[in-house]
C-alpha cells in the first residue's frame, strides 16, 4: 500500500477501470499519493463484419447522406482504415467534403483533419448527445434532415438517445459501427474489483469513459450485487472524466462527486486527488481502513 504522504490522495485506495492506458493511470494515482487498483474493464474489438462500414462508404460516395456525425477520434481513424482497401483516402475525403460533417468534440475534429478533411461543423462543449442535436437543429434551415439520411459513427455502446433524437426530427438514421467495446475475456479481476467496491474496501472510483460504467454494472448484475454496489458508491468518492460519463453514472443511479476542469485523464487524477480530502469531509465519509483484497495486476 502506498505510504501516506500528506498530500493528494494521502494513501486513499483508488480503483480505476482504465484499459488502454492502465499503466499510465497506475503511475498517475501513485504520483498523487494514492494506492491504485487499476482493473482493465474492456477490450476493443472490431465488429464481426465490416459490411456496414463498407456499405456506408458506397452510399457516401453516391451522395446518400445529408449529414455524417463522427463521435470519436478513434472511430474516425478506424473507419478510414476499414474503407481504405476499397476506397482511396482521397476519394473518401472528397465524399465527406461534399457532405455536412459534424464532429462531437476536439478528438474527432482532430482525427478528421489528420486524414485531410478541413471543413467540419464542431459540436460545442460539453460535447454530449444533447449538444449534437442542438448543432443539427441550428443547421436545420440550411441542412434539413427530415426524410433524409444521417449517418452516425458509433463508439461501442450505441447512444440510443442521440439516435432517437435524430429519428424524432424525421431523419433516416444509419448507425455505422467501426469498433465496439467488449468485456475482457477474463472478467475475474473486474469481478474482484466490483466486490471490493461492495465491501467498501476502497475510497475513490475513477471513470474515464461510459463503457467502463456499463461494464462495471454488467459484472455487478452477473454477481447479483447491483443494489449493493449503488449503496456502496454512495459512501465513496466517485469521479468522472466528463459530462457523458457522468450522465451514464446518474442513469444507473450512481453518484458523481466531481469532474475535472477539462476532460483529461491527468487532470481527472490530479483534481480528484486534490479534492478528495474536502469531499471526504463534505460527504461525511468514514473511509475504511480494511486492506484492499486484490489479485496481482499484470503490468
Topology:
Layout: E1 13-16, H1 22-31, E2 35-38, E3 43-45, H2 51-61, E4 67-70, H3 73-83, H4 89-97, E5 100-103, H5 106-114, E6 121-122, H6 129-138, E7 149-154, H7 160-168, E8 172-177, E9 180-182, H8 188-198, E10 204-207, H9 210-222, H10 226-233, E11 237-240, H11 243-251, H12 265-283
Parallel strand pairs: 1-2, 1-10, 4-5, 4-7, 5-6, 7-8, 10-11
Antiparallel strand pairs: 3-9
Helix pairs in contact: 3-5, 6-7, 8-10, 9-11
Explain the overall architecture.
- By secondary structure, the chain is α/β, with parallel strands linked by helices.
- It has two domains: 13-42 and 184-283, Rossmann fold (3-Layer(aba) Sandwich); 51-181, Rossmann fold (3-Layer(aba) Sandwich).
- The protein is built from twelve helices and eleven strands.
- The strands form three sheets. The chain has a five-stranded parallel beta sheet with strand order 6-5-4-7-8, with helices on both faces. The protein has a four-stranded parallel beta sheet with strand order 2-1-10-11.
- Helix 1 (22-31) links the parallel strand 1 (13-16) and strand 2.
- Helix 3 runs parallel beside helix 5.
- It is elongated, with a radius of gyration of 21 Å.
- The two termini are 17 Å apart.
Number of strands: 11
Classification by helices and strands: alpha/beta
Number of helical runs? 12
The residue-averaged pLDDT reads 89
What's the domain count?
Answer: 2
Which sequence of strands runs across the widest sheet? 6-5-4-7-8
Please identify the oligomeric state.
single chain
- The percent range for helix content is 40-55%
Amino acid at each position: 500500500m502506498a505510504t501516506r504522504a500528506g498530500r493528494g490522495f494521502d494513501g486513499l485506495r483508488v480503483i480505476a477501470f482504465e484499459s488502454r492506458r492502465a499503466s499510465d493511470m497506475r503511475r498517475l494515482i501513485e504520483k498523487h499519493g494514492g494506492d491504485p487498483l487499476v482493473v482493465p474493464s474492456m477490450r476493443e474489438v472490431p465488429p464481426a463484419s465490416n459490411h456496414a462500414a463498407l456499405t456506408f462508404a458506397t452510399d457516401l460516395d453516391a451522395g446518400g447522406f445529408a449529414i455524417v456525425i463522427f463521435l470519436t477520434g478513434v472511430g474516425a481513424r478506424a473507419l478510414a482504415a476499414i474503407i481504405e482497401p476499397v476506397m482511396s483516402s482521397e476519394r473518401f475525403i472528397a465524399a465527406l467534403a461534399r457532405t455536412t460533417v459534424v464532429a462531437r468534440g476536439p478528438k474527432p475534429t482532430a482525427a478528421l483533419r489528420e486524414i485531410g478533411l478541413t471543413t467540419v461543423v464542431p459540436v460545442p462543449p460539453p460535447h454530449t448527445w444533447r449538444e449534437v442535436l442542438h448543432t443539427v437543429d441550428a443547421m436545420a434551415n440550411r441542412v434539413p434532415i427530415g426524410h433524409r439520411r444521417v449517418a452516425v459513427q458509433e463508439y461501442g455502446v450505441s447512444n440510443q438517445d442521440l439516435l432517437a433524437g435524430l429519428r424524432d426530427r424525421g431523419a433516416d438514421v444509419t448507425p455505422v459501427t467501426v469498433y465496439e467495446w467488449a468485456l475482457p475475456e477474463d472478467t475475474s479481476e473486474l469481478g474482484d474489483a466490483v466486490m471490493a467496491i461492495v465491501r467498501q474496501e476502497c475510497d475513490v472510483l475513477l471513470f474515464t469513459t461510459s463503457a467502463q460504467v456499463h461494464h462495471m454494472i454488467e459484472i455487478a448484475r452477473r454477481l447479483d450485487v447491483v443494489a449493493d454496489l449503488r449503496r456502496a458508491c454512495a459512501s465513496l468518492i466517485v469521479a468522472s472524466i466528463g459530462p457523458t460519463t457522468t450522465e451514464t453514472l446518474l442513469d444507473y443511479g450512481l453518484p458523481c462527486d466531481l469532474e475535472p476542469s477539462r476532460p483529461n485523464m491527468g487532470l481527472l487524477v490530479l483534481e480528484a486527488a486534490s479534492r478528495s480530502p474536502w469531499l471526504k469531509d463534505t460527504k461525511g465519509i468514514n473511509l475504511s481502513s480494511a486492506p484492499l483484497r486484490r489479485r496481482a495486476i499484470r503490468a
